[in-house]
Amino acid sequence: MAQEADLHTRGWLSRWFGPRLWVVLALAVAVGYPLDILVNSALPGVTYRTVGLALAGLSAFNLFELWPRVLPKSLTRWVLQVVAVGLAMPITNFLFWSLDNPAGAPPFWHDNDRLGSFGVLTALALLFAPWMALAVLVRQKDALARHQALSFDLERSELERKALDARLHLLQAQVAPHFLFNTLANVKALVAIGSPRAPIVLDSLISYLRATVPTLNDSESTLDQEIHLVQAYLELMHMRMPDRLDFALMIDETARELRCPPLTLLTLVENAVKHGIDPSEEGGRIDIQVRRQDGRCLIRVADTGVGLRQTTGGLGTGLSTLRQRLLLAFDGDAHLRLTEPESHGLWAEIDFPAEAVLAP
Amino acid sequence: MKMRPSALIADDEPLLRTALASLLAELWPDLDVVAQARNGREALDYFERFHPEICFLDVHMPGLSGIDAARQIGRRAHLVFVTAFDQYAVQAFSQGVLDYLVKPVEAKRLAETISRLKERLHLAQPATNTEALLQQLASQLLQRASAAPAPLQWIRAQSGQTVRLIPVDAIDYFRSDAKYTVVAWRGDDGQPAEAVIRTALKELIAQLDPVHFVQIHRSYAVNLRSVSHVRRGEAETANIHFKRRCEVLPVSRSYLNLFRQM
Q: Cys bridge to A56: A88, A349, B222, B237, which one at CB 3.0-4.6 A?
């Protein structure tokens, strides 16, 4: 099936006038011309006959390559093509010899000489043509196999990329249990005292979960979605540590529509909370800035937490995973920069091309 | 007349402190919650000040953790640990004689804990000796935090007043320079850059992923992903060429076997 579809798309022009034609013509000349020289002038123009035969064979081959579109089950196309090429030989020869008949002479089959030459050339043609047809078919099959192997390779690398993506995604979603139960404990506390904040906090939790629970359709997301997610996350964290966490978002509104790999911003902010603010008794502040400049999207998450000096292990894996994800998503045209400012804390900056989300 | 029993609550999340306090007030009206601490250090301060008989300690707190605080309180109080979902901690707690609560705290579970505590207070039992267990727990948790220390992902390099973090896969090679190590890497623009760090090459190598970083010389370690080819010279020598750098580094004889043909 795939083979047929492929052949259909290749276009009839190239099939009739493509390399096949030239190969067949060259062979016809190569066989016909020496015969012309060898055989005496009684048989003028063997070359033009071989060329004619070649063209007829090629036409038969090409015709039955596509026609009829649907074959009866008992008939395979390659057999049909080879048989057609075979039949084309005597028919064409018959036409040649009939047209060549000198005026007034009896039909060539009454003339032993001409019948002989007809027989020789027909036999020769029958010896050559079907084999050539078979050779073309074999080559085609090889090419198809190669093509399939190639597309299989492509598919596999795409699959590998997807698997990697999924694994990275899971790695990131793994923070959930501790965070989830702690947050639920807080929500429960709010509900117990009948706080009007409870439903709002639950909403934040729901948006957070919706975005972080691995989903099937997660390859594209906009910065706007990321910003909402981060807002939900920060509101939850602020509920949990109101005395220790301050945050502010400065968002360039024109950047909201931009493409942003899922959980990019969240990873930076979670990292700032987990490794910067949470280990500190005094806590700190997180400033998130999103800008769009010169065709690029610039994001900065700056925290005033403990910085890297005091963190032991753990750090880096999330961020270097994010870095790899960004490189994958933007074909290497993305940067993640980490700096520790003079005061304390950590600045995580990323920039990537400002692209619109592809239409689904 | 016997005094009312007293307790201390330590948790870094205020809502959870008040929630536990009000649940306790409901289930154990006699209990006097004398202080609420926001971290391990505060918990110790309050403990020294009020000497409560019972301490509810959140395991995860900034600065001094619940386990650290518990080790310093020792047998001077009955300890109850409070933890969110944490498989390892819960496993460790349930194996020992330690009392623990899992967040969100359920009233029924808290009631059980309360009756156990009441019994101990009634019998005037001294608090269980938990030191060995706590030490084990602390080291277990610590181990997990740094379990199989993952290979270094970022190199911290001072440049002026700021510290820059260089992703290890952007590094081409390290060059040992007396006490310092020079990091040769490619910046965001792909251009070669250098940074100096204080860590000695030997120390650094130990922390890097051995699959990608190999030492090729007393003073050099290279990132194999950046190497374009190795050219053999005469008499057991070889040079390393990079994909995106023009420097050529020597391979010492003792490291030559790294680049034998397959």
A: A88
How remote is the C-alpha of A63 from its chain's centroid? 34
CA angle B30, B34, B38 (to 5 degrees): 130
Residues B69-110: tens digit of each pLDDT: 988 998 889 999 998 866 666 766 666 667 889 889 999 999
Shortest Cα distance, chain A CAs vs residue B162, angstroms: 5
ipTM of the complex as predicted: 0.80
Bridge-based pairing of strands A296-303 and A346-353 is antiparallel
Among A266, A294, A286, A303, CA closest to A351? A294
Q: CB–CB of B188 and A335 under 8 A? A: yes
CB contact under 8 A, B167 and A320: yes
Helix (H, G, I), strand (E, B) or coil at B192: strand
Residue of A nearest to B160 (CA): A342
CB contacts < 8 A (A, B): 109
Contact A279 B62 (CB under 8 A): yes
Q: How many CB atoms lie within 10 A of CB A338?
A: 24
CB-count burial class (<10 Å; 0-12, 13-18, 19+) for B250: middle
| Rg for chain A, CA atoms, rounded | 38
Q: What is the largest CA-CA distance in chain A?
A: 120
Largest CA distance in chain B: 96
CB of B118 within 8 Å of a chain A CB? The answer is no
Tell me the chain A residues in contact with residue B145 when contact means C-beta distances shorter than 8 Å: 312-314
Burial class (CB in 10 A: 0-12, 13-18, 19+), A228: middle
pLDDT along chain A (360 residues), means of 10: 46 71 85 78 70 88 82 83 88 84 78 82 85 84 72 64 61 66 92 91 88 62 91 94 95 94 90 90 95 96 81 62 84 88 88 82
Min Cα distance B110 → chain A (Å) is: 14
Domains and CATH numbers, chain A: 2-164 (no CATH), 174-353 (3.30.565.10)
CA-CA-CA-CA torsion sign (A76, A77, A82, A83): positive
Q: Which residue is it, tokens 């080790």? A: B71
Alpha-helical runs (H) found in B208-262: none
CB contact under 8 A, B163 and A339: yes
List chain A residues with CB under 8 Å of B102.
181
Q: Does B86 touch chain A (CB under 8 A)?
A: yes
Residue A301 is encoded by which pair of tokens?
């998450």
Question: Which structural domains are found in chain B, ordered by start?
Answer: 6-145 (3.40.50.2300), 154-259 (2.40.50.1020)
Contact with chain A for residue B149, Cβ under 8 A: yes
Q: What is the DSSP secondary-structure string of A239-271?
A: HHSTTTEEEEEEE-GGGTTBB--TTHHHHHHHH
Q: For residue B85, give the nearest of A177, A320, A335 by CB distance.
A: A177
Q: How far is A134 from chain B (nearest CA, A)?
A: 42
Q: Do the beta carbons of residue A168 and residue A218 sit within 8 Å? A: no
Of the candidates B239, B204, B238, B242, which has an alpha carbon nearest to the alpha carbon of residue B225?
B242
What does the block give as tokens for B234? 């005469």
Distance CA A46, CA A52 (A): 10
| Contacts with A, B 169-208, CB within 8 Å | 169, 188
